[in-house]
Amino acid sequence: MINQVFENNLILTPWCELSEVSVGQHLYWQIGEYQVHGQVLLTSWFVLGTVLIFGLVANTNLKPIPAGPQNFSELVTEFIRDLAKTQVGEEDYLKWVPFLGTIFIFIFVSNWSGALLPWHLIELPSGELAAPTNDINTTVALALLTSISYFYAGIRKKGLGYFKRYVEPAVFLLPINVLEDFSKPLSLSFRLFGNILADELVVGVLVALVPLFVPIPVMLLGVFTSAIQALVFATLAGAYIGEALADHH
């Protein structure tokens, strides 16, 4: 629970140890030589299962005039398609709708699961359940996938000529352009992680101190913020991919 002692294991050593950064109490599973946060896998499986079940229900027995789950599914699909078209560009956006859609839906459902479900009421041998995006390992993984995707998009379209962007419009900008590419995944991962963690901490503290009506407006604000964070992440991912595909003159 929130009144438990929080651990801040900030590892200032190589990037390979970033996964050891942790905030809060965790349920550790030993897989070979590695320890993983078991509660993150449990909630991630729940989110993936929820999305899969809804997708099967919404896209079974499709009707010419959509209604119910099918209508909502098509609405989400059109929204993601429009987002991809705006950020990636009309020429290439259809290829990136599945990726951006997966990123957006996973983050959206993960964030809302933390805002709406009483995860903390479920007792574990150690640690506590929370939204998957409440763990830095999840957000870093999503950010790295985004980075790999825009590098892949640029190299696939332009070949090795993609790297000319680092010396444009002038050679002396090379360090700045390289630093920019390294800062993108950091910005994506820590923005999402920080906002979701802060929201759950604030709600948890208010529930512990004033358990009745005071936390409700904050919880509603958290629901809105969770949706915005999913939109921001997917929008930035699309913008980075669109930037990699764009022709620079």
TrEMBL record:
<comment type="subunit">
    <text>F-type ATPases have 2 components, CF(1) - the catalytic core - and CF(0) - the membrane proton channel. CF(1) has five subunits: alpha(3), beta(3), gamma(1), delta(1), epsilon(1). CF(0) has four main subunits: a, b, b' and c.</text>
</comment>
<dbReference type="GO" id="GO:0045259">
    <property type="term" value="C:proton-transporting ATP synthase complex"/>
</dbReference>
<keyword id="KW-0150">Chloroplast</keyword>
<comment type="similarity">
    <text>Belongs to the ATPase A chain family.</text>
</comment>
<dbReference type="InterPro" id="IPR023011">
    <property type="entry name" value="ATP_synth_F0_asu_AS"/>
</dbReference>
<feature type="transmembrane region" description="Helical">
    <location>
        <begin position="36"/>
        <end position="58"/>
    </location>
</feature>
<dbReference type="InterPro" id="IPR000568">
    <property type="entry name" value="ATP_synth_F0_asu"/>
</dbReference>
<protein>
    <recommendedName>
        <fullName>ATP synthase subunit a, chloroplastic</fullName>
    </recommendedName>
</protein>
<keyword id="KW-0812">Transmembrane</keyword>
<comment type="function">
    <text>Key component of the proton channel; it plays a direct role in the translocation of protons across the membrane.</text>
</comment>
<dbReference type="InterPro" id="IPR045082">
    <property type="entry name" value="ATP_syn_F0_a_bact/chloroplast"/>
</dbReference>
<keyword id="KW-0375">Hydrogen ion transport</keyword>
<keyword id="KW-0793">Thylakoid</keyword>
<feature type="transmembrane region" description="Helical">
    <location>
        <begin position="192"/>
        <end position="214"/>
    </location>
</feature>
<dbReference type="GO" id="GO:0009535">
    <property type="term" value="C:chloroplast thylakoid membrane"/>
</dbReference>
<dbReference type="InterPro" id="IPR035908">
    <property type="entry name" value="F0_ATP_A_sf"/>
</dbReference>
<keyword id="KW-1133">Transmembrane helix</keyword>
<keyword id="KW-0934">Plastid</keyword>
<keyword id="KW-0813">Transport</keyword>
<keyword id="KW-0472">Membrane</keyword>
<dbReference type="GO" id="GO:0046933">
    <property type="term" value="F:proton-transporting ATP synthase activity, rotational mechanism"/>
</dbReference>
<feature type="transmembrane region" description="Helical">
    <location>
        <begin position="136"/>
        <end position="155"/>
    </location>
</feature>
<feature type="transmembrane region" description="Helical">
    <location>
        <begin position="220"/>
        <end position="241"/>
    </location>
</feature>
<feature type="transmembrane region" description="Helical">
    <location>
        <begin position="93"/>
        <end position="116"/>
    </location>
</feature>
<dbReference type="Pfam" id="PF00119">
    <property type="entry name" value="ATP-synt_A"/>
</dbReference>
<keyword id="KW-0066">ATP synthesis</keyword>
<keyword id="KW-0406">Ion transport</keyword>
<dbReference type="GO" id="GO:0005886">
    <property type="term" value="C:plasma membrane"/>
</dbReference>
<keyword id="KW-0138">CF(0)</keyword>
